[in-house]
Design goal:
alpha+beta; 6-stranded antiparallel beta barrel; 4-stranded antiparallel sheet; 2 helices
């Protein structure tokens, strides 16, 4: 039984890792159990960021793992490992995964700004672990950017401890930036301050059909 309910997306305005929410429907579709709640802190998968994982616990103590989160229309669907009854619940994110995704997404914004400041226009980006990159098209006047130069710029932005800035423009578009840097359209999650980013960031660059592609990676400790 598919549902059709708008979900309040709390992740757009808070970095909360948990919240109370009402489970409105839980149904099976293509062999998967899907839960829809009135609101959620779970970020759904999109082209730029993976969906959050975690758990949902009912007030009676029943618990299910959230294996994946996706958006269908205005509805955010939580893929569960088994069914849960409707009613009030507590939902909690996997903290480590969310922090990594937020760091990678924020790094993409910083790299986007480095490109803008040197005559390169961001045209597309992906912030998934292992495939993170920002692609730039050259403008009229560009400054050459290589791995070392980008790493130096990033180091300064991280050391500056720039706070995140989230706003909505006159068209209703959510925009995200850091400090006084240019804000960019974004529906993803971010860290609160650039000082949260690790110092060990791997950068590589390559050109494809005249565009500059900057790849980046945060090594994960064994």
């Amino acid at each position: 039984m598919a549902s059709s309910m708008a979900t309040q997306a709390l992740y757009l305005s808070t970095n909360q890792l948990y919240c109370e929410a009402e489970l409105l429907a839980c149904f099976q579709e293509d062999g998967q159990w899907i839960a829809v709640l009135d609101k959620t802190v779970f970020h759904p998968q999109d082209e730029g960021q993976p969906g959050d994982t975690g758990r949902i616990i009912t007030h009676c103590g029943e618990r299910a793992q959230v294996l994946h989160t996706r958006k269908v229309g205005n509805e955010i669907q939580h893929i569960l490992d088994h069914a849960l009854p409707t009613g009030m619940t507590t939902m909690a994110l996997d903290k480590e995964a969310r922090q990594l995704h937020s760091c990678l997404h924020s790094l993409g914004h910083l790299i986007g700004n480095i490109g803008l400041q040197n005559g390169w226009q961001p045209v597309r980006a992906n912030h998934w672990p292992e495939t993170c990159h920002v692609e730039f098209a050259p403008q009229a006047h560009v400054v050459e950017l290589d791995e070392q130069t980008i790493a130096q710029h990033l180091g300064r932005l991280i050391a500056a401890g720039l706070p995140v800035q989230i706003s909505t423009d006159q068209t209703g578009t959510r925009r995200v930036g850091f400090g006084e840097l240019t804000t960019l359209p974004c529906l993803g999650t971010h860290i609160s301050n650039t000082s949260e980013l690790p110092a060990d960031i791997r950068i590589s660059t390559q050109f494809q059909q005249g565009n500059l592609q900057v790849r980046y990676h945060i090594p994960v400790a064994a």
